[in-house]
Amino acid sequence: MGKGFDIRSTDNLSVRAMNLRTPEIMGRVQAQVEEHYRSSLVERIRSNQGTLKVGRTTIHLAKRFGFCYGVERAIDLTYAARRVFQGERIFILGEIIHNPEVNRQMRTLGIQSLLVNSVHPDLNTLRKEDVVIVPAFGIPVMLLRRIRQIGCRIVDTTCGDVMSVWKRVQKNASESITSVIHGKAYHEETQATASYALGKGASHFLIVLNLEETEVICRYIRKGGRKSSFLRSFQGAFSPGFDPDLHLRRVGVANQTTMLKMETEAVQRRIRNAIMDRDGGSEGNFRSFDTICGATQERQDALFSLLHSKQLHLLLVIGGYNSSNTAHLAEIGNTSELPTYFIHNSQCLESASLIRHFHVALRREIRTTEWLPNTPLQIGITAGASCPNNLIEEVIRRLLDLRGEALQQTEPDPGSDAPKKDQSRHQNHPRPLPSFRKWKESSDGPRFGKAGTSTNAF
User: Fold this and answer.
1) Residue 58 in contact with residue 402, Cβ under 8 Å?
2) Which of 68, 106, 166, 182 fits a disulfide with 295 by CB distance 3.0 to 4.6 angstroms?
3) Which residues are catalytic, by number?
4) What strand order describes the sheet that includes 205-208?
5) Element (H or E) spanning 290, and its range?
């Protein structure tokens, strides 16, 4: 991308790939996967309409949360690789998914990471007989080609939704259309998508992070400007040889699958309008497709529904700090004017008076005191698509422990037909429903009322 990202060929690859997702193999690894990541408590809460009431604490789970199909598939294939290739060297290109606990479990299986300093994969240690796992985000074309040239056996866990985006940008390339990719230039998925957007080397891409950067593009489309200033604004986020005077004539918008859908739609709308203004009302030089991951959108919609339907006092969002889809869930919570804490495991809940959590805008972990009032509470919980149920259970148990509650005190959901016990105490400290105002576009991202800047930190 600009400097340091020069992938110039995307011809069809006949990769030495391994298909491990067979009924026989999957049957052998299912028990192990469930042992590591299953939670009977979370399943029990799901079956009770997502609600658990214990003493003065009522926990509401979002309708959709946690592992998606693509993540489950990636984990299944990784465990299968370890079982099938016993005693052999297995490497993974970075992290299988963006969750530290899951990646730690991969290391305990003896699967080694090829990343050096968490940035660049080191292929010099690979031998022909080695097994290499491609993570769920996919990898750039040239990197895949180099592994193929070494002769390694490849276990490809790339998510199908990601590959759908690749097909779109490849089509753009075949029609000499520049792909403007709404995503994060440093994210593995976006880097892979950008490599496919180059086609056979004659096409180009430009990566846009947010609506502020989108406005820079739109102004250039409409009025032109200083090329050098434009390129500085997107340093590290465009293809080699990209020229805005030439390569913004025909544009197709794609996206990293885990971005906020409403922001991607705003990016598409603004660029389309800019091209129509330039071209006298014609949108013939514009292409766009809905390539947001279905699981990402389901989790975002489920959180909006939870915030609208329950009188929550606070929200816990669980997942890896480098998980893009989880960060966007935290953004949604923050913009609802609800105390929201983005945590990666139960250890972040240090005490009833101290919690460690990730600040998306600052891109670092911070500490908040007096976060858990000693009053009857309605607590919402959601989790990103890379968060396993066992971690959600650990957070719930830790939360109840800090509240001085025991699961033996479990009471029926107040909305069920079971006898209702002392529901009046939940009326002692009511919190107003989140104030969801009409979403407004702004130069720095979508806003939900006064707090809602989309930072796209991960």
Assistant:
1) no
2) 68
3) 189
4) 205-208, 178-182, 251-255, 286-288
5) none
Close Cβ partners of 158 (under 8 Å, ≥ 6 residues apart): 134, 135, 136, 137, 138, 139
Tokens of 308: 């609208």
What mean pLDDT value characterizes the chain? 85
Residues 6+ apart with CB under 8 A from 388: 36, 37, 39, 66, 67, 99, 101, 102
Which residues, in sequence order, are CB contacts of 322 under 8 Å at separation 6+? 98, 458
Rg over CA atoms, the chain:
24
CA distance 335 to 276: 32
CA–CA–CA angle 104, 75, 135 (5° rounding): 85
Q: From residue 323, how far is each of 259, 288, 340 by CA, in Å? A: 11, 25, 16
Structure tokens at 52: 């658990």
Q: What is the tens place of the pLDDT at every residue in 274-315?
A: 999 999 999 999 998 877 788 888 999 999 999 999 999 999
97 φ/ψ sector (left φ>0, alpha ψ -120 to 50, else beta): beta
